[in-house]
Amino acid sequence: MLYYFYYLYFEYEVGKNKHGHIMSNEFDIGYFSTRAKAQEKIQFYKNLSGFKNHPLDCFKIKKLGVKFETKIKDKSLVDFFVLSHYYSDNDYFDYPTVFPPFATEKEAKEKMEKIKNEKPFCDYPDEFAINQFEVDRYTGWTEGFRELDDVEVEGMLSP
């Protein structure tokens, strides 16, 4: 059966690198059983350090479907697995790939095995990760964040 969940994250633009590519920072906040629960979290986060310096449209909610073999009584008690692949080039440009959630770790590993010899994944074979997430129970960045200062981004951004 297909069940829908809501992925809440925060993304803001840092600037452009020397090649003109937009650079941004992104923070995973959590996965939620309903859109309303994700929106409630935005109300909490919008006043925290770092988050409060950006407009509300930096908070993003993405609806995701996850196939489960059995019927779920309470989506708030679900755990699922997310496969990701992430690498950076020498110009500090990031290339993240996050796949839709899987009901089991085995399914995530099977997907990884299926694609690990494809481009660009085969060039960075050690950059895969599988993370388990608890719906409505995991949230990150609960104390806010510190933005990069000018010294830290020097050389990364175009003049």
Largest sheet composition: 3 strands, antiparallel
**Which class best fits the helix and strand makeup?**
alpha+beta
Strand order of the largest sheet: 2-1-3
Order of helices and strands: EEHEEEHEH
Distance between the termini: 52 Å
- Could you tell me the mean pLDDT? 87
Number of domains: 1
Strand content: 35-45%
β-strand number? 6
From the alpha carbons, calculate the radius of gyration and give it in angstroms.
17 Å
Instruction: Provide the helix percentage.
Output: 10-25%
Q: What is the tally of helical segments?
A: 3
The unreliable regions are: 150-154
What form results from the Cα inertia axes? flat
Tags for this entry?
159 residues, alpha+beta, three-stranded antiparallel sheet, 3 helices, 6 strands, flat
